[in-house]
Each structure stands twice: as structure tokens, then as C-alpha cells.
Specification:
2 copies of one chain form a homodimer.
Chain A (H helix, E strand, L loop, with lengths): L6 E4 L8 H16 L5 H10 L1 H9 L8 H15 L7 H8 L11 H11 L1 E6 L3 H11 L5 E4 L10 H10 L7 E5 L2 H9 L3 E5 L21 E3 L2 H7 L3
Parallel strand pairs in A: 1-2, 1-4, 2-3, 4-5, 5-6
Chain lengths: ~240, ~240
């Protein structure tokens, strides 16, 4: 299979990094420290579950442009209430909120990206704000060539302009760029702007009891179970 | 000396990379191949000399927004005429124009950046377009955490908004960000927006016969002769 792909842009949360187990891992330390018995897998999914609704409020104009850090913080306040986690100082809340800057990569991610980077330009294309993505890359050793974020346009994916922006900033044609994501809707939105779709299945994104739809569209150019398989299939 | 600096943003052309000797080095190959006897040091300075006037035309609205790649190409056409270099194919011109994507770092640059990156977030803040900066980083091994470019705003430095953009995308306060540049005017424009100034002297930017003004303002927070000295002075 011959590809003219020159650059890969990556969805990040769930595709490159594993927020579910990272939040559990940090959460268990909070349980110990605070004497809580909180189910942090449930917290992870509740927190992440508020991600889309908050971005939708921004996109409907009910909120002004707001960085994802600040949306995460607004969602965190609701989650703290829901799980009856009380008594955190402002500093503790801020540290907890920045767990999104410390997310750990899936086990295959750094090795796969390192291979892919030899052959392709690699960029994020994430709703995370730039500083979040930069911190995460430094913390977890993600070898990006550059950081593209919805923040650059102040509109959230799947707004068509986010995919167009990546193509334009790379000085490429849309068909020379592949979005890599674990989420079909993101891939379909990218395809609608002419990008190729690379679907990487992440069955454990929401934990072992909430397996997502892993069905690949026949129009996806590549389907892989991890970034090493993606590198194999792309000849990297 | 105590610094609260968290991120360094870098001017690139002349500060990080040495366009003068890179253009001479590639130019000597053109001379051989074409039987020319062109003085490529003079070409480098003539080409670079058209950089500011072309950007000024964009900023005055006489040209629409134009990526630096395209401004370089317009300037190249003039330089080819001036130096009577004729007969290049479109493909050859395009390859020559992309020498700006292949600029080599000053000898201290990669080592200094690698040290600085352990302690600070490092970004470009350049008038080069994003794809130019990404290509250059891959080609020359420049270890950026992220790529900021005038292209993100479609206004060229020293427009104040370019410095403000870097601060905003880093989610920092202006005084936590230092611009590192070999050019006093760039540093003064950054200082006017609250950033700190790191002056790195590059006496050979224009070659051995055109030494620039190397005078440091007393308001510059750091003055250094190369990136290793900069790292020393910033405690990295």
C-alpha cells in the first residue's frame, strides 16, 4: 500500500495518553493522603464526561473562549461535589487539575512516535491548550515536531477550521496529512476536510468495564491496534 | 542573580542558525554545478537584506498576508537577477529557496538549547512560517518544545501582538518569558510587552566583513556570547 502522507497529526487524550489509569494512579495517592475511599476510575470517566458538554457551551457562545485548563477546572468543581471530595485547598485543586498535564502515554506511544518521526512530521491536533500539551510532552517524553491546538484558532474540534489550520500551517495538501485518533467522529470530521484517517483502537480508554465502539469505517486509510502497528503499516 | 523565568522564546534567523555560511556552503555547490563565479556571501546578505522590506510591505497592507517562504521566493527572483544567475528551472529555484529550511545552527546552539531545555520551556518566536521552522528543526536537530511563528497571527515581528501571543499560549505572565535574540530591536519590542530580554551576540551573522552593532542595552536581563554562556547565566 503506497502512501503520499507527509505529516501525521494526532488526537491526544485517549489516543496518545491514557488519562484513565493516570487519574487512578494519582487519585490513589489522594485517597491515602485524605483518608478517602473514592473510586477514581469513576472520577476519571465523570471528569472526562464533562469535557464535550463544556466545549459545546463554548462553541454555542454560552461561554467566551476558554482554555481547556479552565474548562477542566470548572468540570473538576462539579466532580468534587459529585464524589463528595471536600476540604481541598486552592493549591491542591490546582495541582489535581493539572493531572491533565502529567498524563502518561500508552505503553506503545513513545516507541511508535519515535519510529514515525523518522519518516513523517508529527504534530498534536488537540483540544488541549498549548501549555498543557507542551507540559505533557516534556513530562512524558512525547517527541512532537510541533504543537497544534484548538487554542490557536479559539474553536474546538471537530470544527472544520481546526483540521484546515493544521494543513495550512504544515504547508501541505490535505491528502498529505493524516489524522491519527482513537475516535471515529474526529476522524470523520478530518476526512470531510480532505485529510486521511488513521484509526488506532484504544479499547481501554474508559477502563476495563466501558469498552468503546471499535468499529472501523471502511474509508479509514489505516487501522491499527497501537502506534507500532501504525508505524509498520505506514512503512516507518 | 535570581530569575523567575519559566520559558525562553527564540528569534531564529541569525540567533540560532547561521544563514550566512549555510548559503555560502550550498552556493559553492551551485557555482560548481553551473560554472558560476558568484559571491555567495554577497548573495546571502542581499537576500536577507530584502527580508525586512518585504515584511514591511505585508504589514503596510501593500501585500496580503504572505508566508515567509513566499516572501523569500519573491526576494530570490530579485537576487537571481541582481547576480545574473540565469537558467534555473522552477524546481531548482524551489530547492534553492528552501535553503532557509536547511539552515545550520551556530556551533553552540544545539548543546546550549539541550541544556536550557532541562530547565525551561523552549519555543521559537520567529517570522519564519511554521513548516519552515519545523523542517529546520528536524534537519538541524533543534530541540524545541514548541514552534511559535508570526504565521499563527498573520502579523510579523516586531508587531506587539507576536510577543503577547507567545506569553498567552504559554499560559505565563510576560515577566516569566524571555526573548533570546541577537537583534536589539527585537529585544526592545519584546521588553515593551513585558518580556525579559536575553541578548546573544552573533558578530558573524553577516559574515566577517560586516560586524553588526553588538552594544547591549543596560536593560537587557542577560547578555551572552553564545548559548552555553546563556545556559550558565540562567543556571541551566
Amino acid at each position: 500500500m503506497e502512501y503520499k502522507i507527509k505529516a501525521l497529526v494526532f488526537d491526544v487524550f485517549g489516543t496518545v495518553v491514557d488519562y484513565y489509569t493516570t487519574i487512578i494512579s494519582e487519585g490513589e495517592q489522594w485517597n491515602q493522603q485524605k483518608g478517602w475511599q473514592v473510586d477514581w476510575g469513576a472520577v476519571a470517566n465523570a471528569w472526562r464526561g464533562r469535557y464535550r458538554p463544556f466545549m459545546d457551551r463554548v462553541m454555542r457562545g454560552e461561554l467566551p473562549w476558554t482554555k481547556l485548563d479552565a474548562l477542566h477546572r470548572m468540570a473538576l468543581e462539579e466532580v468534587l461535589n459529585e464524589f463528595q471530595m471536600t476540604g481541598l485547598t486552592e493549591e491542591e485543586k490546582e495541582h489535581l487539575n493539572r493531572v491533565w498535564h502529567r498524563l502518561r502515554p500508552w505503553p506503545d506511544a513513545v516507541a511508535g512516535l519515535t519510529r514515525l518521526r523518522q519518516r513523517f512530521t508529527l504534530a498534536t491536533l488537540s483540544n488541549g491548550n498549548v501549555s498543557l500539551l507542551v507540559d505533557m510532552a516534556k513530562y512524558s517524553g512525547l517527541p512532537w515536531d510541533c504543537i497544534f491546538s484548538a487554542e490557536l484558532l479559539k474553536v474546538y474540534k471537530p470544527d472544520p477550521r481546526t483540521y484546515q489550520m493544521a494543513v495550512e500551517l504544515l504547508s501541505l495538501q490535505a491528502h498529505e496529512v493524516m489524522l491519527v485518533a482513537a475516535h471515529q467522529a474526529d476522524l470523520r470530521a478530518a476526512q470531510a476536510q480532505g485529510l486521511r484517517a488513521g484509526f488506532v483502537r484504544r479499547p481501554l480508554e474508559f477502563g476495563p468495564h466501558n469498552i468503546p465502539d471499535l468499529t472501523a469505517d471502511s474509508t479509514f486509510a489505516v487501522v491499527a491496534d497501537d502506534f507500532n502497528e501504525l508505524a509498520d503499516k505506514l512503512g516507518a
